[in-house]
DNA sequence: ATCTATGCCTGGTGGC
DNA sequence: TGCCACCAGGCATAGA
């Protein structure tokens, strides 16, 4: 599942292929991915040239002459560069034909991903984007307002860290890893954590994300390689997906539970509940 | 205002 | 082997 480091990796690897390319045609075998009328979308996009690719949190922004295409990969979205249409496989839902006769193809088994189009420069007025909090790898831990949001949240710390309106960029994998490094139990109610503990969590979120970006993200549960998302951070995972295996710190068996509906991995010994 | 439950989707898995 | 129920989960939305 693409989180901030994976989206960053996708952004960087796509730049090489796309910047300067013009869109000649669009095919959309499953147009529901595109959150506007397909003929409008085609009319606007055709003859637009890729000028840049940006990212905020888990959102990708493809910058064109007049528009910004906002793409969220959700759980399984991937982009491929194809040399010919006969290379397309199942689940490639939106395909852009480029100037160089190659194709940019959006692949998404679960069909949860989204593509939206806004006037250039208006990406931060989009409903979903404008609510996003500060990026989890760009946090100033002296941000009193942010600490205060944690202190006022009466729900598990894991749920707070997954709330993109508070901090953005973390998903299920990196939250588990961040809490393990911080020795905080994922079910702990955020409001009972001390300011120091919250700062520790935020510092560790940055450390985890920065390291994952360096390693090109995490690749788990993928059955085919995809452009830009074959990372190496899966070799660094301490608890996520490690249920039944010994904790790398204390050898206690890693447990899997559900927190806020999410599969959650932690070490019961390194991450005990606080005694009040 | 906060928090939780549900729907969107398909492929993989485990039970029979 | 096949059928089926169930699970995985980011985010929008509805509901408590």
Radius of gyration: 20 Å
When the domains are counted, the total is: 2
CATH topology of the largest domain: Helicase, Ruva Protein, domain 3
Described by its quaternary structure, the protein is single chain
For the terminal residues, how far apart are their CA atoms? 36 Å
Order of helices and strands: HEHEEEEEEEHEHHEHHEE
Shape: elongated
Return residue spans where pLDDT drops below 50 for at least 5 consecutive residues.
none
Mean pLDDT rating: 93
Q: Say how many strands there are.
A: 12
Give me the side-by-side strand order of the main sheet.
1-6-7-5
CATH C-level class of the largest domain: Mainly Alpha
CATH architecture of the largest domain: Orthogonal Bundle
User: How does the helix and strand content classify structurally?
Assistant: alpha+beta
**What's the story with the biggest beta sheet?**
4 strands, antiparallel
Number of helical regions: 7
Helix content estimate = 25-40%
Estimate the strand proportion: 15-25%
């Amino acid at each position: 599942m693409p989180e901030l480091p994976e989206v960053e990796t996708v952004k960087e690897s796509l730049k090489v292929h796309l910047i300067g390319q013009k869109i000649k045609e669009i095919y959309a075998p499953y147009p529901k991915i595109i959150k506007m009328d397909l003929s409008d979308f085609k009319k606007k996009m055709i003859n637009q040239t890729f000028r840049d690719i940006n990212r905020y949190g888990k959102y990708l922004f493809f910058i064109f002459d007049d528009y910004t295409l906002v793409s969220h990969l959700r759980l399984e979205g991937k982009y491929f560069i194809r040399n010919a249409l006969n290379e397309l496989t199942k689940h490639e839902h939106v395909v852009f034909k480029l100037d160089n006769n190659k194709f940019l193809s959006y692949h998404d088994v679960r069909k949860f991903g989204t593509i939206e189009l806004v006037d250039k420069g208006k990406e931060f007025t989009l409903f979903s984007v404008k609510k996003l909090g500060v990026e989890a790898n760009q946090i100033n831990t002296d941000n009193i307002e942010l600490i205060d949001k944690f202190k006022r949240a009466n729900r598990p710390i894991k749920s707070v860290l997954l709330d993109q309106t508070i901090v953005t960029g973390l998903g299920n994998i990196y939250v588990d890893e961040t809490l393990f490094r911080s020795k905080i139990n994922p079910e702990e109610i955020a409001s009972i954590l001390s300011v120091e503990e919250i700062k520790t969590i935020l510092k560790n979120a940055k450390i985890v994300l920065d390291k994952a970006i360096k390693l090109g993200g995490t690749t788990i549960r993928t059955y085919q390689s995809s452009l830009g998302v074959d990372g190496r951070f899966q070799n660094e995972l301490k608890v996520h997906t490690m249920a039944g295996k010994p904790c790398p710190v204390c050898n206690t068996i890693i447990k899997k539970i559900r927190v806020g509906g999410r599969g959650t991995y932690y070490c019961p010994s390194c991450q005990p509940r606080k005694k009040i």
